[in-house]
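Quick question, first post here. What does this chain look like in 3D?
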Amino acid sequence: MISHKTASSSGRSAKKSKRSGRRSPLATVSLIVVGLLTTGGAYALFTSTATADTNTASSTSQSQVNEGKKLFAANCATCHGMAASGSSAGPSLIGVGSAAVDFQVGTGRMPLAADGPQAEQKPVQFTNSQTQAMAAYIASLGTGPSEPASKYLKADGNAAKGAELFRINCAMCHNVAGAGGALTEGKFAPSLKGVSSKHIYEAMLTGPQNMPVFNDLNIKPQEKADIITYLKYLEKNPSPGGFQLGDLGPVSEGLFIWIFGLGAIVAVTVWLTARSN
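> Answer (accepted):
Ran it through. Tokens below.
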């Protein structure tokens, strides 16, 4: 009997110790709250760092933002709205970043001259300082891609790697030589010859018109610099094979052979026939 009592008392004490070792439901909730706070704080820190990286391409003063706001109200608000939130005539510009403004205004595509399949390049209507002011104003409205760092615009990267990246990502529209090409419904991919390094980079970053966006996850900044290097190499080193025929590829070359080559054969045949008579 004594041993049985001892055994049952030891079992009860083991049960009590087991119960006392259980975690309280409040402790579980506390751990979840601590985990959420830690994760949220880390995410907020990362987001603020990324935002700072996005918008620190150049330090902008409030006076520059104010100047840009005035220029925007006088020249762009008709289509994009006074608050740049968009209208039936133009999309919202909140969150597009300074790079999009610098590309569109810096290439003369904006302000838009007339409705059409896409905005075409035309003479620039604003000075560089005015363009920068409008870019600063739009950047102040929301986070977006900023203008590229100058180290990526020197065209001193790897031209061979850039050529490979260009063939994979860009040549189907812009032609392997960057000569441009026709798209559907009256749209087109423009020639990249003579385009500044900055505007080429900004086009990849923002995806204007029908172009897809190549952000830094798709094509890294150094890879964008390599593509620019390849395009600038083409400008400095024209085709060594004779007439370029617009760099439009086998269609123009085949047409040239068909018209002039076959035409020459017919002309020679007629000349020989006339001589024999």
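The chain has eleven helices and two strands.
The longest strand covers residues 181-182.
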